[in-house]
Amino acid sequence: MSFEVMLRLGAAAVLFAAFAGWELAAPRRRLSVGRARRWPGNLGIWIVDAALVRILIPTAAVGAALYAAGEGIGLFHWLQLRLSVAFVLGFLALDLIIWAQHVAFHKIPWLWRLHRMHHADLDFDVTTGVRFHPFEILISLLIKIAAILALGIPPVAVIAFEVVLNATSMFNHTNARMPSWLDWALRLIVVTPDMHRVHHSIVRHETDSNFGFNLPWWDWLFGTYRREPEAGHDGMTIGIPQFRDLAELRLDRLLTQPFRNDGNVEAESTQPPSTRR
Ligand SMILES: [Zn+2]
Ligand SMILES: [Zn+2]
Question: What is the pTM of this model?
């Protein structure tokens, strides 16, 4: 195992342990299903994702950035931007692209089939933050590589972005309590758990808001920001109308969800929530 892989795995494990410990010490909401039924599947899909991406596309995004830098490919190289400027613009561009991609995963029916697995979790905690279908991870990676090559985003910006996004996507799914003044202050620069929890509401127009994973600014800018769920953070229901059976929390069911219609709401299951009326 290479040093880089060990470093990434080690950092992810430390972050996970820290956020999980915080949740245990100061929980925000009572879990409706709990950990024992959800964590094996959620952590299982995390391992599948790590193995798949690592095997199929090793060093993926950073590799593309190194290639672009070596060959002088991409807009930032043609404009001969200074590294500091290219770093900031590259970081912002990656975050905006991830945001836009998330909107697309909600609006385009076949992409929603992949992404709805993230939303089908019946509770919202740190393991929800690593619960993504491997096909969504792969598509997301290809989009990121295309953006890196087109813009010539410097490798250091790509590494920084990946590190920050790994940390924030766990942080903003954490089921931990924090003072409202801290949530308010943090929300100016990063998506907080209370902000992202709205996105996991079963209510359709709430699911289709707060698309940010990292910087909160894009949702403010494009009018998709929603401060709170209508039912309140304690009263809201987490999940989507489909796949609410407890058996759907198993790893094998998570993997096959995109290719199945749920019996109860079959007519709706092929459409993203945004187009259901
Ligand atoms: Zn989503
Ligand atoms: Zn989420």
Answer: 0.89
- On whether the CB atoms of residues 68 and 90 are closer than 8 A, the answer is no
- Cα(240) to centroid(ligand 1), Å: 11
Query: pLDDT tens string for the chain (277 positions)?
Result: 577 777 778 888 899 999 999 999 999 999 889 899 999 999 999 999 888 876 666 678 888 999 999 999 999 999 999 999 999 999 999 999 999 999 999 999 999 999 999 999 999 999 999 999 999 999 999 999 999 999 999 999 998 998 899 899 999 999 999 999 999 999 999 999 999 999 999 999 999 999 999 999 999 999 999 999 999 999 999 999 999 999 999 999 999 999 998 755 544 444 555 544 3
Say which DSSP state 249 is in. Answer: G
Give the Å distance between the CA of 64 and the centre of ligand 1.
Answer: 26
| CA 69 to ligand 1 center in whole angstroms | 32
Name the phi and psi angles at 154, rounded to 5: -65, 145
Task: Return the ligand number nearest the Cα of 196.
Answer: 2
**What is the whole-number distance in angstroms between the Cα of residue 77 and the centre of ligand 2?**
34
**259 vs 25, 43, 248, CA distance in Å?**
38, 21, 13
Contact call for residues 204 and 243 (beta carbons, < 8 A): no
User: Is 227 strand, coil or helix?
Assistant: coil
Q: Which residues pair with 111 in a beta bridge?
A: none
235 in Cβ contact with 70 (< 8 Å): no
DSSP 210: -
